[in-house]
Amino acid sequence: MDTGLLIEKSVLVVILFLVSLGIAAYSTYFERKLAAWIQDRVGPDRAGPFGILQPIADGTKMFLKEDFIPKNADKWLFIIGPGISMFTALITSAIIPWGTDLELFGRTISLQVTDFNIGILYLFAVLSISVYGIMIGGWASNNKYSLYGAIRASSQMISYELAMGISAITIILMSGSLSLSEIVEKQHGMNWNIFYQPVAFLVFFVCSLAETNRAPFDLPECENELIGGYHTEYSSMKLGLFLFAEYIAMFISSAIMAIMFFGGYNFPGMDAFSGNTLAILSVLAFFTKTFIMIFVFMWIRWTIPRFRFDQLMHLGWKVLIPIAIVNMLITGLVIALNQGWFN
Amino acid sequence: MTLQILAIILGSLTIGSALMVVLSKHPIRSVIFLVITFFFISSLYILMNAEFLAIVNIIVYAGAIMVLFLFVLMLLNLNKQAEPQTSLFTKLTGVLTAGTLFSVLIAALKDSLVLGKTYTAGNSQIGLVESLGNLLFSKYVVPFEVSSILFIAAMVGAVLLAKREKQIID
Known about the structure:
heterodimer; A: mainly alpha; 2 strands; globular; B: mainly alpha; 6 helices; 79% helix
């Protein structure tokens, strides 16, 4: 076993963990500031200059609140529900290529925890199990509103996973690989998939909104129908974990979209740089793309009203899936024609 | 050697969680233990370099089918009181039937172990997507197509059943 590899991967994992938590914490701040700006308000401005310490104050508040477990709740499942949510939100970052190789202490360090050769499938596996946290938490609360939220979440996620998977197949067809790092490398030199697959991007983006339970698809926690949805009975840091997991999922799915459609860490004119300069610039380019996607997520939340549940199902099954399938078939035909399979 | 120790640990964990599926009284807990069992089975696949199979096992079984199981159980809201009381006779019959099936299965599998190829460690390419795809679309193309026809038939059947239900309501 290579000790150096073990150390560098462990350091990378710890950094990714901290970065994910930090970005999730500051996403809450930016979300509130953005909401304030869109609605012509001031937003949080008490804690520190421009309210910059607000996430820390929120986190402290969460920790100091009373941790309450309802009497009739299933105690163990009630506790592991938020844990599963947080776990599944965090483990996706293992397969994301954050930048080009870095050279430190005479070693070439890959900025990807593991180059899993079926990265996209891993992504979908994690996505499909991420619903367990919400379902278990919602059911274990022993509250009918929580159960409604949990059932809505699961049916919504199952429905939108299909369209998402089919639109991802077009990207797999384009790059001929299931590995995320190869998908990024194929998009080198402004060959970004968004220019070839705008329809697939649209479907994938709408499905990402639904999978992360963001508005206009936030029916599982729809506050004016279900009080708080699946986390009605939760308090203290357990509630905090649920809310945090949602923001981490938003960050990760923005990163995935940046990888699959916007060239990942590629940026125009990247051939002029090399070595560590290129590595740092590529990481910056990747995070810029990710933050722009996060901004779009928030922008949509404060612009578009919430769907009704039957409209949500209609959109998923009768609009997005047919569009994705037709798009996939056309892509397959064009690729087959280009490679001369019909000659 | 490490591989063997890992296989023994993971295998016993698989059997343990599979036993918990049967032994736990609460249906929701049974389903959750079943999900955990699928995860352990996937980890055994990964030990044998069958990464694709492992991930697909998680997507299909843990991610889709078990979510539906959980969904139905939550809607039914089964609990201990709702569970039908079974007499000693029924339990004995169940044990006898299951035991008979088990011995038949063992008898069937005992000989096939010698005939079939056993897994040899070392070929790291065997379970990857490329080799699997090549095999599926060349050597095993007929079984592959037949099973896809079966899937289409199942899907058409499901749609038809759902449609008929609606007409009765009208």
